[in-house]
Amino acid sequence: MKSTTLMMVLAWLCMHGLPHALAADTDTKSLRQIKNTENQACSAVSPEETTKLGLIQQMLAEGKPHAALAHLEAANIKNEQAALLRAHGLRQTGRALQAQAIYEQLVTSCVSGYAYRGLGLIASNAGNLQESLRYLQAASNALPTEHTIRNDHGYVLMQSGATEPALHEFLTAVELAPDYRQAAHNLILLLYRQGDINRAEAFARQFGVDATEMQQLKKMTADSHSTNP
Is 196 exposed, middle or buried (0-12, 13-18, 19+ CB in 10 A)? Predict the structure, then answer.
């Protein structure tokens, strides 16, 4: 049976922030070949494989990438979804070069949007913000309603100083997924950095951000101002 997607696998939520990764060179050829291939059909997946991949995806979401990689090895599933999860696990365990090689193989597959996202996160962690933005824009083009990609794109835009586009990405993310706390936090953080305190606090009330979280966001704002006079 053909399956165009596995919802449990492809609804990937990254961990808060951008995890540390090894510096990696970007393959400029992949930037020239950016296109939307998400309408391609993924390889056939059996119900048993679907269950295994869902459990592995859950391990990654819970911050257990080493265990996830071990289970992927044991499952020995050969398809695009398994390769994507392997790349995620390698990236989360600091093996950016290995993860990058897999992501680059997947950019013309049925999971291209998530592959571009992975490349964007690797580039961001290596300090290559402009390359990261190109990859994340490609990811957003492929998956325009994926809230996690919108949030990642907004975060890198904010880090690069493009505050207005970042604001729209965060707003899009929270409207697509009102319960997505990471985007809500980033939105409030950006508004604090812009000095729009009233609006930041209004969004905090709307999203139920408590006083402790607000203090942390205010501290992050102060820290960013102290390092960027």
Answer: middle
pLDDT of residue 115: 96
The confidence band for 39, taking pLDDT boundaries of 50, 70 and 90, is low
Backbone phi and psi for residue 3, each to the nearest 5 degrees, phi listed first: -135, 125
Give the number of other CB atoms < 10 A from CB of residue 208: 10
Q: For residue 18, give the amino acid letter.
A: L
Length of the chain, in residues: 229
Report, as an integer, the average pLDDT of 112-134: 95
Name the E strands within 150-194.
none
Q: Which of 164, 96, 93, 167 is nearest to 125 (CA)?
A: 96
- What are the DSSP E strand ranges found in the chain? none
Amino acid at the residue 22: L
Instruction: Check if the beta carbon of residue 183 is closer than 8 Å to that of residue 207.
Output: no
Higher per-residue pLDDT: 197 or 63: 63
Q: For residue 6, which of 80, 66, 104, 116 has the smallest C-alpha distance?
A: 80
| pLDDT of 222 | 64
Per-residue burial over 43-75, b if 16 or more Cβ lie within 10 Å, else e, is eebeeebbebbeebbebbbeebbeebbebbeeb
**Mean pLDDT for all residues in the chain:** 80
Distance in angstroms (rounded) separating the CA atoms of residues 52 and 69: 12
